[in-house]
Specification:
This protein has about 210 residues and is α/β, with parallel strands linked by helices. About 55% of the residues lie in helices and about 10% in strands. It has 9 helices and 5 strands; from the N terminus they run ααβαβαβαααβαβα. It has helices at about 1-10, 20-30, 45-60, 75-85, 90-100, 100-115, 120-140, 160-175, 195-200; strands at about 35-40, 65-70, 90, 150, 175-180. Strands 1-5-4-2-3 form a 5-stranded parallel beta sheet, with helices on both faces. Helix 4 links the parallel strand 2 (about 65-70) and strand 3 (about 90). The longest helix is centred in the middle third of the chain and has 20 residues, at about 120-140. It is elongated, with a radius of gyration of 20 Å.
Length: about 210
């Protein structure tokens, strides 16, 4: 019902609703039950509009801020942020920050041990608490959570190893990943081709905009 209402309604901040194939794509993705979905959309077919409709449906169910955008380049991430009005990041940057979580957790543990020293002044204790709070906020910012949707735009340009790691992290967090792109487009400079392989694996069942 949530998806039906969202796909019938005017898009947030727009004066138009989804077209039929866009609405069908949103419904297929939002209700598939898969942790990894793909959306095929050559240039000019309305990928951005479809993603905006999906965002509206997803946030209705999972709350504001539950959709995150990633893209293989900073420029593409900036475009995605402007189009969907969501937090977006370069995929490599997101993975780098994710890799820092272990070190940040160790830093928090060290700060808490220092905080336990009985000879500390109150001003020093306050400074340590601020450092702990800042580091915890950084971890939260870069950590996926259950029910979150991660949209990877221009996914045909993303490297296979990066996508594999992202999907592994999302699966552990019980988040969903949507790869959006054109499987006929040139692949990544690094080891790539996974988007096209996933499209083939779906054997015509992947939602496609025309």
């Amino acid at each position: 019902r949530t998806v039906a209402v969202a796909t019938d309604a005017t898009l947030p901040g727009k004066d138009y609703a989804l077209s039929l194939d866009q609405a069908v794509a949103v419904e297929q993705i939002a209700t598939s039950g898969r942790q990894l979905d793909v959306l095929i959309g050559p240039a000019g077919t309305g990928k951005s509009t479809t993603m905006a409709g999906l965002r509206a449906a997803w946030e209705t169910e999972h709350g504001a801020g539950s959709v995150l955008g990633l893209a293989p380049s900073a420029a593409a991430a900036e475009v995605l942020a402007d189009e969907l009005e969501i937090d977006t990041e370069n995929t490599a940057k997101w993975l780098y920050e994710h890799h820092q979580e272990t070190d940040k957790l160790a830093r928090i543990a060290d700060l808490k041990r220092t905080l336990g020293a009985p000879t500390l002044s109150e001003s020093r204790r306050a400074a340590l608490r601020r450092q702990i709070a800042i580091t915890e906020a950084e971890i939260t910012r870069w950590r996926l959570r259950a029910g979150q949707l991660v949209i990877v735009d221009e996914a045909s340009l993303a490297g296979t190893f990066a996508l594999d790691e992202l999907v592994t992290v999302a699966r552990a967090a019980r988040a969903k990943v949507l790869l959006v792109g054109d499987h006929a487009q040139l692949s990544a400079v690094e080891a790539g081709g996974m988007f096209a392989a996933l499209v083939r694996d779906r054997d015509g069942l992947a939602p496609e905009l025309t």
